[in-house]
Amino acid sequence: LGRIVTRQQGPVAARVAGLVDRVEVEVGDRVEEGDPLVWLDDETLVLARDLAEAEYNAMLAEQATERAELALLEGERGRMARLEGSAAFSKAQLIDKENEIDVARGRIATAAAHIQQARAKLELSARDLEDAVIRAPFAGVVSLRHVSAGAYIQVGNPVVNLIDDQQLEIEADVPSDRVSGLAPGTT
Q: pTM of the full predicted structure?
């Protein structure tokens, strides 16, 4: 006696938490890899992405402002340096201007780091928005539905179970006294 088993099966889980907006599949439905199974309400995810995009743009503007400030300070330093040797020249003011330039360069570096953080936050929020549509990781048949519209799910909660019914194997129990008679390729 033997049994037919699938090589791939199991629950399909949510990558983001949210309210189930609609479920596209029923038990027994065949799905292809990448087919949408469940849609989560994405209103808050869209707002989070828009907020992250606005923060990213604000950081870009901040960096542009800091660069303009640096250019202004460097221009002032250049004018001061050209006065060297005249009665209007002050070594202390030139040193102060150099220090202001160093501070401005530090602010530009900080702004660049903030831009990287904002870009990562934007990419994460865009990924969460994509994950609001839960898709089939492989082709198969829906064997169980765990959620319905209106349910709230957390990250990792299963939404459906899938069984790959195309890649099957046969498992057979063979008594130990018959194993010696088995060879690969024997019908």
A: 0.71
